[in-house]
Structure to design on (306 residues):
């Protein structure tokens, strides 16, 4: 049984969609809609939303960089291999959706998009982020899931306003040593990677509420895990854990712990100190019936799934 603990809910500008089959091509102002780029370019001071999804194109026209008032750009589900450098001119852009393309590298200076709040790069072929990403100081949401990342550079940790980082289904072997600098991070999704350990600064993520580390190769957790007092959901299923640190008892806001498919025989006695714990999942661990009965007495208000 796989538990999904984080629901992706990105804020998208209120827009209308105009469809031709599966293709969505439109540009929109408050009072006018356009159905091709040339029409939109006739009113560059007005167009704020532009979508060119499901179109099967391999490149974007450089002319798109003339839409300098653009705030929302969606080109997902195409076959883009690179982006026109003119995108660097879109200084008012707040949301950029590049999901489900064929990008292997971002060559443009993405750091020029100073107003960007949401960047979706999931389902491409990326192995690294551009160094200029550190200049996106207004970025709140970054999704790089389903790519080929083995690691992230330290630059990622300069994104001071980042609150959601999604990197599921990559090949991450380790995290940046300075990841603790992301002190506004609230949701961190790292399932289906190859992580064997967490860096020392990890527990400095004190605003983190949802953490998904399932389907990795973790054998131990930081002893000071209890410093992450905002945690509500902790997903550790399908790792190689044999025990949890005693400090877990300090996670007073924790509501759900997912531990299925590990090698855990007992939990620290401090587990009883979690007043808000509603769900504890322990399926496929070598836990005896006697200990399970003991847990039920320690956690009378918690649903234990075994």
């Amino acid at each position: 049984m796989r538990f999904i603990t984080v629901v992706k809910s990105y804020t998208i500008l209120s827009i209308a969609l105009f469809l031709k089959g599966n293709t969505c091509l439109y540009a929109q102002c408050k009072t006018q809609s356009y159905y091709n780029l040339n029409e939109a370019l006739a009113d560059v001071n007005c167009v704020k939303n532009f979508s060119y999804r499901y179109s099967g194109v391999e490149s974007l026209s450089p002319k798109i960089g003339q839409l300098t008032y653009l705030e929302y750009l969606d080109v997902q589900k195409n076959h883009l291999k690179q982006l026109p450098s003119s995108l660097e001119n879109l200084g008012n852009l707040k949301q950029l959706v590049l999901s489900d393309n064929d990008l292997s590298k971002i060559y443009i200076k993405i750091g020029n998009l100073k107003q960007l709040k949401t960047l979706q790069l999931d389902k491409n072929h990326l192995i690294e982020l551009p160094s200029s990403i550190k200049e996106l100081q207004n970025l709140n949401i970054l999704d790089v899931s389903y790519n080929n990342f083995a690691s992230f550079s330290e630059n990622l940790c300069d994104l001071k306003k980042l609150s959601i980082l999604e990197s599921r289904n990559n090949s991450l072997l380790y995290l940046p040593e300075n990841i603790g600098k992301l002190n506004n991070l609230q949701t961190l999704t790292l399932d289906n990677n190859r992580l064997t350990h967490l860096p020392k600064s990890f527990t400095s993520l004190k605003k983190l509420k949802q953490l998904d580390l399932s389907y990795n190769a973790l054998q131990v957790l930081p002893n000071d895990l209890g410093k992450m007092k905002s945690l509500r959901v902790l997903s550790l299923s399908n790792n190689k854990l044999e025990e949890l640190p005693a400090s877990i008892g300090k996670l007073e806001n924790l509501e759900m712990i997912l531990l299925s498919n590990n090698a855990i025989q007992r939990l620290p006695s401090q587990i009883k100190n979690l007043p808000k714990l509603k769900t504890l999942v322990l399926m496929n661990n070598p836990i005896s019936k006697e200990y399970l009965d003991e847990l039920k007495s320690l956690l009378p208000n918690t649903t234990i799934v075994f």
User: Anything to note?
Assistant: The longest strand covers residues 23-28. The radius of gyration is 22 Å. The chain has two domains: 17-148, 175-306. Residues 1-24 have pLDDT under 50 and may be disordered.
